[in-house]
Amino acid sequence: xxxxxxxxxxxxxxxxxxxxxxxxxxxxxxxxxxxxxxxxxxxxxxxxxxxxxxxxxxxxxxxxxxxxxxxxxxxxxxxxxxxxxxxxxxxxxxxxxxxxxxxxxxxxxxxxxxxxxxxxxxxxxxxxxxxxxxxxxxxxxxxxxxxxxxxxxxxxxxxxxxxxxxxxxxxxxxxxxxxxxxxxxxxxxxxxxxxxxx
Amino acid sequence: xxxxxxxxxxxxxxxxxxxxxxxxxxxxxxxxxxxxxxxxxxxxxxxxxxxxxxxxxxxxxxxxxxxxxxxxxxxxxxxxxxxxxxxxxxxxxxxxxxxxxxxxxxxxxxxxxxxxxxxxxxxxxxxxxxxxxxxxxxxxxxxxxxxxxxxxxxxxxxxxxxxxxxxxxxxxx
Lengths: 198, 173
Fold this sequence. Notes:
The complex is a heterodimer of chains A (198) and B (173). Chain A is an alpha/beta fold and 198 residues long.
């Protein structure tokens, strides 16, 4: 039950993907992904962290990418989350947004609920599924020597980009962040659009 | 009322006049003319969903990015959305869902009757304001009222279109 699919440090790789780039529009899925992005760039105005609607993060990111075609949009989520919304790979490819990157933090386990294996942990190839859906760029990130090149593609390649990052199933400590979706919505729209609610 | 009054054309015009730029949908016979009218409009971006549970999520993202939209589907599709509607409730994301309801009028397929019987109450329990429309003259005004409520009040609103309006599917035996 505790087979490792890779050993990369999730906090390190997410920090490198965020790269201090305040202009990225970021949507995170449930569980650790929101804490990783918060650890990387703070409780940022342009982080929208989901704490429900499992499977929905890539598709919320698709909506942002359609509305904001000039901005890089990055969805960061766990492998269990991605598996719950696999249809989104097909939906994303009906629109083919060049500015969207989907980053799966793949440890092959449902770590939060007791470390049960996911389908990825059973050997299902998520990047292969993205490739079959037509993603022009879809890869695993497992070799530390390749990280710089692959991070750069996630940040700026003509997408949609799909990355399955083979992380260890260690769970780093949580960091202080809000879970209030209405607050995150309002501050995101204020920072991006200058809109305050009426 | 003219017998050939076209509620789809009127509904399309209401959506266009009120700034809809994104249309998410899973196709359904009852709203096929409305989908086609939106698809023919270069100012509207259509997203054909793999599963209805994506429709509100695309529109929530579009709202974060500054665009307004509408979500079209069949009644059984609304059943697929219940968990993901939590995003709209938790975040007060505006939503107009237009649902062509199978199973409520002259239905010939018993599988459809379950959601036809329950969808109105399920959506109300989920926190939606729910309107039902079964007359041609009510369709566009109701859609306009619902849309304004969704986007002015950050509310979650459903318009259920009866098959009395959209036409029933024929089953022969």
